[in-house]
Amino acid sequence: MHEEKLKQFYERRLTAEAGGGEDKIDSQHSKGKLTARERINLLLDPNSFNELDKFVTHRSDDPELKKFYGDGLITGFGTVNGRQVFVYVYDFTVLGGSLGEMAGKKVSKVMSLAMKVGCPVIGILDSGGARIQEGVSSLDSYGDIFLKNALASGVVPQITASIGPCAGGAVYSPAMTDFVIMVENVGQMFVTGPEVVKQVLSQDVSFDELGGAKTHATKSGVAHLIAKDEIDCMDKIKTLLSYIPQNNREEPALVTDNTDDFNRVDQKLVSILPENPYHPYDIKEVISKIVDDGVFFEIHELFAENIVVGFARMGGRSVGLIANQPLLLAGALDIHSSVKAARFIRFCDSFNIPIITLVDTPGYLPGADQEHNGIIRHGSKLLFAYCEATVPKITCIIGKAYGGAYIAMGSKNLGTDVNYAWPTAEIAVLGPEAAITIMHRKNLKNSPDAAEIKKNLAKEYRNKFANPYIAAERGTIDLVIDPMETRPMIINALNVLSSKKENRPWKKHGNINL
Ligand code: HXC
């Protein structure tokens, strides 16, 4: 009797684990993609996966819609490098990984559990979107998931990977999560596919051009990270997790087996900065010299490259770094860079990750294009994000910090805790050339030696205004520091700020200028 029941159970389990069947699995492999179960094995620690809802099936009364155990989605919990996570992994071999009523309930269930338990949720997407046969029930399921994404936001970290097509509703849920990773040549994200684009707009566009990994990493900013293959994708998820805590009430893990000397000074640091402030240099060289072991995990590497954001450790503590990149647009702030940095700051603040800002920017990018596309609206997000953040905030101005960009890049008055400047810092309302043109317009206009006079005035201006000492006299710069000591100075500040508590007036939520 028991034997028969067990036999049936084993059969059912095997059926569930076979997904859409051998043909579909072969087809999945022939597209260069792993199956959902293979992906889980790659992501989670060996034998750590505990599946939930394995025997769920759809409840549609469409007789032509075949039932599959699991309903095109594998969910459960397991560990990544020993840390508990919940996962939902779309199974493209079953009805194209499309999401119906019951599959949607599975996703919502693990998200609710993750919030109760307080651990990250990782979603792997490979899906045709809302299941057409289940109509409004599929749409309702997406609504449920979006609600869970919003409720979980800022409570537990949410990471999603696109490893296959993600159409319709399958893109908005990832977009509501903290980080989206796309696998090159495999991941595709689009609200409406190329066929619809052709029908509606008569435009020919390939899947990859429309919504491939490169497109979303460089143009739209939807993808925070791109991976060269599925192994790289899972590695990137693991690395990302290592910098972030389990939930909003925990701190990121402190790395105690650090071999990089906390007091390490670097005499060459200042020489990265060109003598001529108009010459470009790579801010990532500065970053790699001050962080532990030179390891920097960059986010949004190919999007809005005029600002650099990412994670690193300093003195074993996880930090979020934001730095202007003089290699592109001279490090000026524009729409995309403001939004990119603002979102990163808000993530760090949600999950107790201190924010380190390195400043070298000539200001907000001028021009009709920027104004018309909303630099005022988008640029204000950066201000808002810095003001809102209550985690430890440390800023170091190393070069130019002019006008609004000086204020925006973590200035003291936005609530930054410790503000340093190198002796090379230039803090002023305007850059020398712009300031002189305004202050001496009449004289310069009538002078035959305008160029020479301008040069001399610029020198004078730089000496008089464009330095860190006026700000240091007023205490908005706490200390002008020797560049070589940047690493120990920041680590010491991080240590003292580790017990920082900052309370703000009660509110439902702020109204950031979306
Ligand atoms: C039901 C679906 C499906 C869907 C795919 N399939 N998408 N079944 N509902 N949404 C099924 C296919 O019929 C096929 O079944 C199997 O999955 C594999 O699909 P193929 O087309 O053979 O695979 P491929 O050539 O790789 O193309 C994948 C694809 C394409 C690009 C995802 O299937 C596609 O364009 N699907 C529709 C995408 C879409 O428009 N979705 C609805 C979006 S609207 P068989 O039985 O033949 O193997 C939406 C609303 C929510 O999501 C909006 C919220 C804001």
Outline type:
elongated
CATH architecture assignment name of the largest domain: Alpha-Beta Complex
Mean pLDDT over the full residue set = 95
Structural class: alpha/beta
How many domain modules?
Answer: 3
* Poorly predicted spans: none
* CATH-assigned homologous superfamily of the largest domain: 2-enoyl-CoA Hydratase, Chain A, domain 1
User: What is the helix content?
Assistant: 40-55%
CATH topology of the largest domain: 2-enoyl-CoA Hydratase, Chain A, domain 1
Over all CA atoms, what is the radius of gyration? 26 Å
| Main beta sheet | 8 strands, mixed
Question: In words, what does this structure look like?
Answer:
This protein is α/β, with parallel strands linked by helices. The protein folds into three domains: 2-242, 2-enoyl-CoA Hydratase, Chain A, domain 1; 269-430 and 466-497, 2-enoyl-CoA Hydratase, Chain A, domain 1 (Alpha-Beta Complex), CATH 3.90.226.10; 432-465, no CATH class. The chain has 20 helices and 16 strands. It has helices spanning 2-17, 22-30, 36-43, 101-117, 135-152, 169-175, 194-201, 207-211, 213-220, 230-243, 283-290, 335-350, 368-373, 375-388, 403-408, 432-439, 441-446, 450-464, 469-474, 486-497, and strands spanning 50-52, 73-80, 83-90, 121-127, 158-167, 179-183, 188-190, 225-227, 296-299, 307-314, 317-324, 355-361, 393-402, 418-421, 426-428, 479-480. Strands 1, 2, 3, 4, 5, 6, 7 and 8 form an eight-stranded mixed sheet that branches. Strands 9, 10, 11, 12, 13, 14, 15 and 16 form an eight-stranded mixed sheet that branches. α4 packs parallel to α5. It starts with a helix and ends in a 17-residue tail after the last helix. The structure holds hexanoyl-coenzyme A. The site of hexanoyl-coenzyme A has 17 residues, from α5, β5 and α6.
